Amino acid sequence: KKKITSFKETRELTLLCYAENLLSDDEFLVLWENNQSSNPDFPWDSYGPFDLENIDEAECKAEFRVEKRDLPTLRELLWIPPTFKCPQRTICDGMEGLCMLLKRLAYPCRYSDMIARFGRPVPELCMITNRVMDFIYDAHGHRITQWNDTILNPRLLEQYATVITEKEQL
């Protein structure tokens, strides 16, 4: 089984070969320049893995906009599976994936902002978050794409708007 080498590993090997005089100056420069990532190199591996048990209530509410005690119920109601598997074989616990999506949706949040919490590189965070979002949409999308005439008809929508407006004026 072949392992795909990262830019970082290739650059480290290039430096080692150059230090051992296995590469000329020109060869070194060509290899060095051609093995640079256009993405920032975040130190994701210096952080530990996600552990919901070590997140206190206030942090949970601030980061995910959900009470910690409500996360298991939310997971159950959204039918979140035990694990998510991405096409490139990354595996993520279902609760971790749900928390990633919740954190990502808590504006403003970039994937790089999530590294310290989840201890994963940006590409994995992106793939997992998209996988969870796709799962939820596939499972529940019909709830927002199909008109529910019993509660969302024009007459009732007008009534809802009127009640809310009257409530705001009190």
Automatic annotation (TrEMBL):
<protein>
    <submittedName>
        <fullName>Uncharacterized protein</fullName>
    </submittedName>
</protein>
